[in-house]
Automatic annotation (TrEMBL):
The gene is HIGD2A. Pfam families: HIG_1_N (PF04588). It is found in: Mitochondrion membrane. Keywords: Membrane, Transmembrane, Transmembrane helix. GO terms for biological process: mitochondrial respirasome assembly. It comes from the Eukaryota. This is HIG1 domain family member 2A, mitochondrial. Residues 20-106 form the HIG1 domain. The chain crosses the membrane at residues 48-67, 83-102. It comes from Leptonychotes weddellii.
Length: 106
């Protein structure tokens, strides 16, 4: 069995840069987006997801507040509301994915 030949390294690996793959463009956008720009673009594409996230956070916060104050009935109601808001958010994400898939096909 022959020993493998020496491996000559190509360009040095740079961890701060994405890998270069021939024929693959990592972004369809010509310039890099900042976090704020990307957040605003995604919110415009599917505005129901941030609304669902805010509703979930509000129900959780108020439910914990009621639990702390000893209002167990209201706290239980808010935890159930939180579950409904989470379901709404998941449904919004799935519908947004389906809409973008349908849009990319046409």
């Amino acid at each position: 069995m022959a020993a493998p030949g020496p491996v000559t390294p190509g360009a040095p690996f740079e961890p701060s840069q994405p890998p270069v793959i021939e024929g693959f463009s990592p972004s369809i956008y010509s310039t890099q987006e900042s976090f704020k720009e990307k957040f605003l673009r995604k919110t415009r594409e599917n505005p129901m997801v941030p609304i669902g996230c805010l509703g979930t956070a509000a129900a959780l916060t108020y439910g914990l507040y009621c639990f702390h104050r000893g209002q167990s009935h209201r706290s239980q109601l808010m935890m159930r509301t939180r579950i409904a808001a989470q379901g709404f958010t998941v449904a919004a994400v799935l519908l947004g994915l389906a809409a973008s898939a349908m849009k990319s096909r046409s």
